[in-house]
C-alpha cells in the first residue's frame, strides 16, 4: 500500500479554521488527484502547514517527479479552491516510501483472506539477520504501534539467540579446558592396559623389588 502525505508550508494561513473546519475535499475529474486536505493548526497552532494525502497510483506518479512539479500542481488545486490571490508555498516535503529500496511501500496491506503463515514467512530470520516492523505484526500490521510491538518481540528473540550463543560458547570453553586432563587420563589408562599381566612381576623382579619366588607367584 502506498500512502503519501505531502506537507506544504505557507507564510500565512488563508484557509478556514475552527471547529468542524479541519478537513476539506477537492473534486477533480481524475480519481484521487489532490483530493484529501487538512491543516495542522489544531495540532501545531501557527505552523501554517497544509497536508494533502495521495494514495496508490497518484502516490507513485508524484514520487517519480520533482518536488517543484508537485508544488506547482498543488498550488493550481489550492488556487482553484481559494482563489488566485493566495500566497505561494515556501517549502514542501514529499515522502517517497515507494521508491525507497528498503521500504517499497508506506505500510503493509494484507488481503482479507490470508493466514498467519504469510507473516511468519516474511519475518523468518535469514541466518543471523532478523526482520521486524509493522508488517511482521499479526494483529496490528499497518499501524505504528504494530511496528512498536513487533520491535519488542523481535528484540526479545534476538536476546534469546545471543544467550544461546553464550551458553554454547561457555560449553565449548569448558570442553577446551577439560580436554588436556581427559587426554592425560586416557594416556595413563592406555599405558596400564597395554601391559601384559606377567609384565608387572617381571618388571618388579628386574628392579630388585621382588625375589624369584614372589615374581613366579
Automatic annotation (TrEMBL):
It comes from the Eukaryota. Residues 3-154 form the Amine oxidase domain. Signal peptide: none annotated. Belongs to the flavin monoamine oxidase family. PANTHER family: FLAVIN MONOAMINE OXIDASE, POLYAMINE OXIDASE 1. This is Amine oxidase domain-containing protein.
Amino acid at each position: 500500500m502506498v500512502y503519501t502525505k505531502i506537507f506544504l508550508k505557507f507564510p500565512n494561513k488563508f484557509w478556514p479554521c475552527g471547529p468542524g473546519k479541519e478537513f476539506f475535499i477537492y473534486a477533480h475529474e481524475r480519481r484521487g488527484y489532490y483530493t484529501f486536505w487538512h491543516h495542522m493548526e489544531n495540532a501545531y497552532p501557527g505552523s501554517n502547514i497544509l497536508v494533502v494525502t495521495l494514495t496508490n497510483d497518484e502516490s507513485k506518479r508524484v514520487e517519480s517527479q520533482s518536488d517543484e512539479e508537485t508544488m506547482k500542481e498543488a498550488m493550481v488545486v489550492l488556487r482553484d479552491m481559494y482563489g488566485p490571490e493566495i500566497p505561494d508555498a515556501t517549502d514542501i516535503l514529499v515522502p517517497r516510501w515507494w521508491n525507497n529500496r528498503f521500504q517499497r511501500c508506506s505500510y503493509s496491506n494484507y488481503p482479507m483472506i490470508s493466514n498467519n503463515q504469510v507473516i511468519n514467512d516474511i519475518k523468518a530470520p535469514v541466518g543471523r539477520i532478523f526482520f521486524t516492523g509493522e508488517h511482521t505484526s499479526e494483529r496490528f500490521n499497518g499501524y505504528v504501534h504494530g511496528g512498536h510491538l513487533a520491535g519488542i518481540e523481535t528484540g526479545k528473540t534476538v536476546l534469546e539467540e545471543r544467550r544461546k550463543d553464550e551458553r554454547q560458547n561457555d560449553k565449548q570453553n569448558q570442553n577446551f579446558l577439560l580436554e588436556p586432563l581427559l587426554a592425560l587420563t586416557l594416556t595413563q589408562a592406555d599405558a596400564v592396559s597395554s601391559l601384559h599381566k606377567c609384565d608387572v612381576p617381571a618388571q618388579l623382579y628386574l628392579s630388585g623389588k621382588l625375589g624369584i619366588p614372589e615374581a613366579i607367584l
